[in-house]
Design a protein that fits this description.
InterPro entries: Acyl_CoA_acyltransferase, Bact_Acetyltransf, GNAT_dom
Radius of gyration: 23 Å
Organism: Candidatus Avichristensenella intestinipullorum
GO molecular function: acyltransferase activity, transferring groups other than amino-acyl groups
Strand content: 25-35%
Helix content: 25-40%
Shape: elongated
Number of helices: 9
Keywords: Acyltransferase, Transferase
Protein name: GNAT family N-acetyltransferase
Length: 313
């Protein structure tokens, strides 16, 4: 069709220079219109953001792409996606822009559709992006089919176009205290309960607690991607005169709920508690969640907001 939107990659030196010229203009115009915004300096400094993005673009695997949206003989916008083919086929959309002169009339939606079709042809199974705190941006991606889905390792809100392919979920104990996906899940959990994301200091304290064995995390994975977590903290009970466990950090990313992941996480934590010889595993529960925890095996009520499972069984 004459007005069909095509994708063309910036390959030549001139095209790459044009891509970065347009990206900087987009950042100044649409993302950081306030010249006093301190964040702008990082994104507009070629020795920082550009250098980081260029290293992703140049790497041999899981690389980024400088793309233009092209229609009727002219460029009308650009995108910067990264496809993680070695992981789980995630296409992370780092940047997306329709030039102001071409906005309106559904052009943005058409460009998004063209980008997603291109990503699928290049090995992507689903797509994800940071939506920031801009309501208009969130509404745009919702129209495309994206849904809110937690936060990233820096606490920025995420949206996802959920995968449709069936991949079995597995649960395993966390072995890497610095795993970035743990930080991502923790920030999603904190966002959901109305708390601030992890600071750098809190991330370091959390990693130290994992390394020291003071807390054990279990991650639910869809292939490579961690989509849920829970944890068990050991503590000494003077009543039992032995170690008991506290079950917490229970979180599944919204897009992956109602697929049996919560039950897999709870069972893994309960089995581990039995293997460790813990006298009990206790969870603090709001009244509205009591039935859910009882269905997950926490069977003995201990007052209004607690439930307990006898770990040794």
């Amino acid at each position: 069709m004459k007005d069909e939107i095509a994708i063309r990659e910036a390959v030549t030196k001139a095209d790459v220079a044009l891509f970065w010229e347009q990206l900087h203009a987009y950042h100044r115009r649409d993302i950081f219109p306030d010249p006093e915004d301190n964040e702008a300096a990082y994104f507009l400094d070629d020795t920082q953001y550009r250098a980081q993005v260029q290293s992703v673009h140049d790497r041999p695997q899981d690389r980024g792409f400088y793309l233009f949206f092209h229609r009727a003989g002219q460029d009308i916008g650009f995108a910067l996606p990264v496809i993680f083919t070695s992981e789980d086929g995630k296409c992370f959309i780092m940047e997306f822009c329709v030039f102001p002169a071409f906005r309106g009339g559904g052009t943005g939606t058409e460009c998004a559709g063209a980008l997603l079709d291109w990503a699928k042809r290049n090995g992507a199974q689903y797509a994800e992006l940071n939506c920031g705190s801009h309501p208009r941006r969130r509404r745009f991606w919702e129209r495309v089919g994206f849904v809110a889905n937690g936060a990233d390792e820096w606490g920025e809100p995420l949206m996802i176009l959920p995968p449709t392919e069936h991949v079995p979920y597995t649960v395993e104990a966390l072995t890497d205290a610095e795993d970035w996906q743990l930080k991502k899940l923790e920030n999603g959990y904190l966002q959901e309960i109305g708390e601030s994301p992890l600071t750098k200091e809190k991330q370091e304290r959390l990693a130290a607690a994992v390394r020291d064995g003071r807390i054990t995390f279990f991650l639910a994975r869809r292939g490579y991607r961690a989509v849920g977590m829970c944890s068990v903290v050991k503590c000494f009970s003077t009543f039992a005169c032995t170690d008991t466990g506290i079950f917490e950090d229970f979180y599944v990313e919204p897009a992956f709920r109602k697929q049996g992941i919560a039950r897999k996480l709870a069972r893994a934590a309960q089995a581990w508690s039995r293997e460790q010889g813990l006298a009990s595993l206790t969870v603090c529960s709001a009244p509205c969640d009591e039935k859910m925890y009882q269905s997950l095996g926490f069977e003995t009520p201990l007052g209004a907001v607690f439930a307990d499972i006898n770990a040794p069984a």
